[in-house]
Each structure stands twice: as C-alpha cells, then as structure tokens.
Write a structure and sequence with these properties.
Its cofactor is Zn(2+). This protein has 19 helices and 18 strands. By secondary structure, it is an alpha+beta fold.
Length: about 475
C-alpha cells in the first residue's frame, strides 16, 4: 500500500519545573545505542521517510550544538537528529541518542533558537533517562486495557497505534505520557542547554505559545469548537502557565532577549518545504481525506479529527475512534474482516464475530460487522466495514465505540468512501512554505489572501508567523506564507 504517515503519539514538546538546573545522568549505554540503530529505519518508515540534504544537515548541526551541553560523553557522535516527512507537529526522542522532529513542527517555528529549544528538550529526556519509567508503565498496560480507556475520550494516537498493524510495541511505549515532573525537568534542561549554547532563551516561551495557537486553530478548522487536544500535547501537555514558566526561567539565564536567533538562516532552510500532507501519502483537507494516487476519498463526521499515516488514517472524536487502512486480501471480504478483528484483539480473549453483512457503497462491494469486546474498563463495540477495491485490494474502517453504538457515530463516514476521477487526482498539489519579504503597503490581510487555503486564511497566516491581531508588518520584514507547489 502507498504511504499514509501514521501518527504514533509520542511527541515531546515541552513543560518546565523549578529554576534550578536538575541533575541528569547523561550516559548512553551500548545497549541503548544498538537498540536505537535497530529501530531507526522502522521509525523513519512509520513517519513518511526522512528529509536529508541541506535541511537534515542543518538540524544535525543545531542538535549537536545543544547536545554537547548535556555532558554526554562524545555527544556529537552519540546523538543523531532526523527530520521526518510527517504532517504532524511532533518531536520525540528514544533511548540511545536518537531525536526526531517533523517538517510540520519546523514550519511552525520562527527561528533557529526555537529549533534549539525543541531539540534541547528532547536531548533532556534522553539525558534524564525518562524512557525507563515510561517503558515500565507500558509493560503494565495491555492492549485491551488501553482500548477500554479510550472509550468516550479523545486519545487518537493510542487507538491509531494499537489498531494499525505494525510497530505495536513501539507505539504502545510512546503513547504514554511523560510525568509532569519529567516534562518540567526536560524543559529546564533544554533551556539550560540553549543558554549555554548562546541562544536567546525567550524562544522557548515563543515556541510554546505558537504550539498552543496552532492547537486551537486546528480544532476550529476540523470543526470542533471544544478544542480537542492534539496528539503532541496529550503526551506532553501544555499547561495554562507553561509559557509563563518558560519565560520566567529564560529571564534567569542571562541570554533572554540577547542571545542568538539566526532567523534568516533558519527561514532559508525551511523555504520550500511541504506543509500539511504529502500528496503521495494522501491529503487531509478539513473533514475529507483524499489519496490522489490510490484514487479514493472519504469524509469524517463533524467534530472528528484525522491524522494520516504510513499504515492508516487515524480518526478521533468524543464518540469513538477509527482507522482507515488495508491488509492482505484473498478475495473474500468475510475472511478479510475476521483477519482485521483478530489483528486488533489478538490472542488475549476469544471474540464472537457475527456473520458480516454484504452491502454496496457508492458502487463498491462492501461488507460489515460489529463484535463486542470486553476490556479492563468495560465492553466496547469493534466494528469493521471492508470494501472490495479490486481483485487484489481491500480497504477497511475499524471503529471503536461505546457498547451498543456499533457503527452509529461513523455511519456517514463509511457511506462516504468513493473513487475519484483522474481529473480530481491531478488537481491535488502539495502546499509549501514560501518565505517572502514584506513590501510597503502589504498588510496581514493582503498577504493572508495569498495563502493556499479556502478558509481561515488570516488565522493561519498569524499562527504561521507568531502574530496576533495587534501585530503590524514592516517593509523588509520576512514572513512565511503557504502556497501551492508542484508534485
């Protein structure tokens, strides 16, 4: 199957605790290094591939600059920094010195100092060995326990990681939150690394503020006024006073407002990078998901959010969780549905699967059923709607809802899957960042009108450039806009 870019909710973006620099054990064992190397290719594949070249080398350079402040022996060699081709604002670290950051998160940044903060925070998690606590917690959480916990809540990455086939152990480990104290410690470490590297530490608070604004806007765009918390903030929550704490700590470092920003260099590196989805992995646009290469489209109900991935599209809402994916198909939809359900439930319990019912959706042969699954937190309904795409390919939605609801909340979604024409497919182009220089007479409104979106243009422009309604542009100032590029 062509790439989707699955989100495993394991981002780590930042919090803060005391003003005293915490003590961390920066040693990286040989076993941890080997494990990181062994898992690297799988992680990169799960997140849509790595972006190398000038951008990759630049991130490695900035990462090394802050990592050497961690006191890890031979830090430049022991840490590795990778840019992922993912449309999710995300960054995470794994034991062994590997740090990952997505192009989407970099697109939200204003300068190199903000990049240094995020990378420094991730280095802090490794230096402080925070993963050991999370791993112990993961071993105490069965798949069924996690499935039960998500009913009636919004934790899309947990479901996406556990329903989608592949990398299940890794997904489970990283969907668990860092503790409040661990986040505070990593923020403190990260800001300390920034200060020692000569960066303006006020960038930490600026980055946190931008993430909060992006979260609120994304919820509005996807039709949920309740402002659901996105995946990166679920595992590393943004408390109400987090930005203020970061600013307070920054003021005590001596580099607040006077350290390095390197804005022009940073903007030159991200000029032209993709924003949002890579068409080769499918496009999320509001409530619709379209894959131009595989020629299909579906629409999620109002109030649900999507993240697309290499193996699945994850769908999350207050009334249920779902994925859209594919699997091995022998031509029999009943067999396929049973295979999907067994892949989700595993061997932990026997589940009675009612005989699937045949139907047709927009001319596509389909079948569906709902099984009752017992979890540590009560019973849930696990429904599967499978579609015969051709003789060799089937797609499916796997949906988890409260017991008794079945497909109910997802009815409009499963009925919306359709084939798209070659003309529709050809019209889909990537969105890219274009760094421009403000000219005399330009306003936020006039530049926002050039954004490659059909809604929330001004709001998107302000979030992208860390601006608010009181901001005023000046001639000669560089700003980012999002335009359509070429495939």
């Amino acid at each position: 199957m062509s790439k989707f870019t699955r989100l495993l909710t394991m981002s780590s973006v930042l919090v803060l605790a005391s003003c005293a620099t915490p003590q961390a054990d920066p040693a990286i064992s040989q076993q941890e290094r080997q494990l990181a190397v062994e898992n690297h290719d799988a992680i990169v594949a799960e997140f849509g591939g790595a972006l190398g070249g000038t951008l990759g080398a630049y991130v490695e350079q900035v990462g090394d600059r802050v990592a050497i402040r961690s006191a890890t022996p031979n830090a430049a060699a022991n840490y590795r920094f990778t840019v992922l081709n993912s449309p999710v604002e995300n960054a995470f670290a794994i034991p062994g010195g590997h740090v990952y950051i997505t192009r989407e998160l970099m697109g939200l940044m204003e300068d190199e100092a903000e990049l240094a903060f995020v990378l420094g925070h991730e280095v802090g998690h490794i230096a402080a060995d925070h993963s050991s606590t999370r791993q112990a917690r993961a071993q105490n959480n069965s798949i069924l326990g996690v499935l039960g916990a998500i009913v009636g809540s919004v934790v899309g990455g947990d479901v996406g990681g556990l329903l989608a086939q592949g990398a299940q152990q890794y997904a489970q480990l990283n969907t668990l939150s860092y503790s409040r104290d661990q986040e505070y410690e990593s923020d403190t470490l990260g800001i300390g690394y920034m200060a020692a590297s000569g960066y303006d530490t006020l960038a930490a608070g600026g980055m946190l503020s931008s993430l909060g604004q992006a979260s609120a806007l994304e919820s509005r765009v996807q039709g949920n006024d309740a402002r659901q918390t996105p995946e990166w903030a679920r595992t590393h929550p943004l408390s109400e006073n987090r930005t203020a704490r970061a600013n307070q700590l920054a003021q005590q470092t001596g580099t607040a407002g006077s350290g390095t920003r390197n804005r022009d260099t940073f903007l030159s590196r991200i000029d032209g990078i993709y924003v949002d989805d890579d068409p080769e992995q499918g496009i999320v646009d509001g409530r619709s998901f379209t894959h131009p290469d595989l020629r299909f489209q579906f629409v999620v109900p109002t109030g649900f959010r999507m993240q697309n991935g290499t193996r699945a599209v994850n769908i999350a809402g207050s009334s249920g969780q779902a994925i859209f994916s594919t699997g091995q198909f022998n031509g029999n939809l009943d067999t396929y549905i049973g295979q999907v359900i067994r892949g989700i439930v595993g061997d932990q319990q026997q589940v009675s699967v009612p005989q699937p019912r045949d139907t047709t959706i927009n001319g596509i042969p389909a079948a569906y059923t709902t099984a009752r699954v017992n979890t540590n937190n009560g019973a849930v309904d696990l429904s599967v709607m499978a579609y015969r795409w051709d003789n060799d390919t089937a797609y499916h939605f796997a949906m988890i809802t409260q017991a008794g609801q079945g497909i109910g909340p997802f009815t409009s979604m499963v009925d919306s899957l359709r084939r798209i024409s070659s003309q529709e497919a050809a019209s889909i182009r990537p969105r890219v960042i274009d760094v421009i220089t403000v000219r005399s007479g330009d306003t936020m409104q006039s530049l926002a009108s050039r954004m490659a979106y059909n809604n929330y243009q001004l709001e998107r422009f302000m979030v992208l450039n860390s601006l608010d309604s009181n901001s005023r542009l000046q001639a000669g100032q560089k700003v980012k806009i999002v335009v359509y590029g070429q495939r």
